[in-house]
Amino acid sequence: MPYDEALERFEPVLGLETHVELGTNSKMFCGCPTTFGAPPNTHVCPTCLAFPGALPVANAVAIESTIRIGLALNCSIAEWCRFARKNYFYPDMPKNYQISQYDEPLCFDGYLDITVEGKTVRIEIERVHLEEDTGKSTHVGGATGRIQGADHSIVDYNRAGIPLVEIVTKPIEGTDRLAPEVARAYATELREVMRSLGVSDVRMDQGSMRCDVNVSLMPRGSTEWGTRTETKNVNSFRSVERSVRGEIERQAAILAEGGRIIQETRHFHEDTGLTTSGRSKEEAQDYRYFPEPDLVPIAPDPAWVAQLKAELPELPSVRRARLQAEWGVSDLDMAAMHNADAFGLVEATVEAGAPAADARKWWMGELARRANENGVALAELPITPAQIARVTELVKSGALNDKLARQVLEGVLAGEGSPDEVVEARGLKIVNDEGELSAIIDQVIADNADAADKIRGGKIAAVGALVGGVMKASRGKADAGRARALILEKLGVTE
Amino acid sequence: MSELIKKTAAELGSLIASGEVSAVEVTQAHLDRIAAVEDRVHAFLHVGAESALAQAAAVDARRAAGDELGPLAGVPIAHKDVFTTTDMPTTAGSKILEGWRPPYDATVTRRLREAGLVILGKTNLDEFAMGSSTENSAYGPTHNPWDLTRIPGGSSGGASASVAAYEAPLSTGTDTGGSIRQPAAVTGIVGMKPTYGGSSRYGLIAFASSLDTPGPFARNVMDAALLHEAFSGHDPMDSTSIDQPVPSVVEAARQADVAGLTVGVVKEFGGDGYQPGVLARFQEAVELLESLGAKVVEVSCPSFTYALPAYYLIAPSECSSNLARFDAMRYGLRVGDDGTRSAEEVMALTRAAGFGPEVKRRIMLGTYALSSGYYDAYYGSAQKVRTLISRDFDAAFQHVDVLISPTTPTTAFPIGERADDPMAMYLADLCTIPSNLAGNAALSVPCGLADEDGLPVGLQIMAPVLGDDRCYRVGAAVERAFESRWGGPLLSKAPAL
Questions:
Q1: Do the Cβ atoms of B182 and B132 come closer than 8 Å?
Q2: Which of A308, A341, A375 corresponds to the end of one domain?
Q3: What is d(CA A362, CA A390) in angstroms, rounded to the nearest whole number?
Q4: A55, A286, A288: residue with CB nearest B201
Q5: What CA–CA distances, in Å, run from A446 to A269, A408, A487?
Q6: pLDDT of residue A283
């Protein structure tokens, strides 16, 4: 069912569960390293492989990071809480239970304010808890890469035991047609918070940030929530938005025909923007949670928590308000930058020395256009904020004009090197050499005798054609203003 | 038979340190004894003669080089096959780990090596330490040296039998519900369950994490104290390990007096279900303590009555989760992996083939007890009972220094008698379980032979958490008084093998 029609008939309720891999040096319960991309099964030990007799020891840095995340999300911090075992069998989970937290999360009852279309929306946080990641299964031989139809599976336990923070929202109601944008803005803002805290590299493409998106619909006017689905495999912010939209359309179509929504896990497909059915949750899996007897309870000293709170870095929303004031940008422009995921890029460009207005102009103009043409995110363009800053510097110094600057950007994006290298290789510097410019002008005057005569005769407006000729002959590298002045001088005309 | 095997560990240690005998001689004497009796006792699952002799030779070399040796350097020990060892297989008495060679040493193993103890081999046990008779071992039962038709207790039955049969002067055990004290009692030797967290569980294959406690077996209290000190103490690899100094148990064993102490007799442990000969010997122990200057009072611990059912919810619950890792994926047995079956099918087939009936029974009990909708009624209630039991202990220790009871309601029963009756089997741990639930220290020392069957009876001495030294102090006093009455250790009355 088309989105607009779906929204006329139904009201969506969202919920997001976000997993963030912490960037600690060692795993959650053992000393193994956590670096991404090591050869399979090289970052393993008796504990994270669940060898008989091996025991977990909790990573103190991970506990501290989780408390800092909780504080940044305005949560209460538990005075006393325990880890719990979540029991289920799966080949990539070495112990066949995951050490997680159940009814005693480390952080609870917080919120995160986000901005969508200029409006502030408060997303309430149910809980933030600490757990360990599983290993990674690769299913070989099937068409889909999923376990169904695969010949065999191989397991890499490097990821098993990496500290994972789960952040769960309370049900988000009242988003109306903005549900997809709210989901995206929440995920984006959450990433910004994680970045500002420095607790994770929050790379959705590498799986260090993963969003599970819960969606349900209720008929307009109803207050009773519908059955929800949980969409996994959502690997980018754009996909968060698309998956919500797609799921609203899918569920609305089923409900409109009198069907019922099956409570299940669904898999998002990047290529189609659609979800397909995964594991049914109709018969709720019984995880047989119980307090982890191998670990002692966590009882953070309130004075220490207070200190962590006092030492929190400036949070992104505060930072944005400050920068907006410093840059003198309108709310609308801020929103535009945010929606384009350009804010961080602009900020970095300003930090690299560019004037805010220029930084914003390039990212939101030329570069946004090119990203859009190529169907990639701004951040994915092969150009850095420092390079943009260099280009603005060259323009400011008069070495480039805007037209040349665009050609420089084109060169950088095409992989021709740094801005200076592109300028050099393409010979894009403005012609400031008076002798060279003078020779070009002499030639243009000679080639356009009629126009020159008209100017001599006082028809100064005709100088435009000669300036155009000079720009053409110099392939855009001449300083147009200087060329105009020289032409008039040579023709003995004063304005 | 070499006279060396009858010596105490302390004596052997000083003989080796002084150079009067070599560690190699001592080790060889015990290997010879093992070779002579093991076909009847079956205390060991693995004997590492070569590595034992090499370890002994290393101790001799250190002595020759002028190194100062610890009190147990060169003394042989039998190691329960539930601790990981890099140089010997580790099976936990289960088919599912048959032939598994761990890539790391348990902390207890490492500390034995550091103390210069010579590990003779790995002892038999009920599969995954679940049982009270070693009949649940996948590799056949161990026999009680007092009467080969009877059980040596369990789960550390290989450990108790090896010491009682003079195959080793010392052995390690683990006690989850009585698995050190009950085997010690029924084989006439000393066995100690330290305070929970006093000895490291790292490398101890888990049965029930919140209860499992490594501890020593010996033929006398002082030897047990020496071994206790050798492997106990804080271990950063075990989060539940207590970061405090080990109570001075050797000093306490030396002190061996009870004058001025108040001893509480647990009222709930006696009467129906207890063998008359056990109660008679226990009564004698009470009178003995009084004669030694202790004040004896009766103490009621009403919650102890619920200890057994609470234990049989908590221990199976934890085990159902702890044993989930045996899934054929990374180590151990793998059944049905013929390329046509899914990982889940191979897991199921492996677990069906690899676990014995008692292990399966407990996994099922625990899985059920933790299930949604039943958790509060079973696991939750059991945890409440656990708290009440701790409170009973706390209240009692306000008034008494130690509590005493028979270690077990009966003497060693015949092999096979209770094999098909789990409830009867579970009753063997009636008196020992409360200290596992509360985590406090408890010792079993011999207190005579039951009149009916001439088999050993144990006296259990319980002390508060971290009061391990009190167990040794009282235990050593009782031992000294009894041995002067008996004219030697109780074990000297055992028939020759």
A1: yes
A2: A308
A3: 12
A4: A55
A5: 65, 32, 12
A6: 66
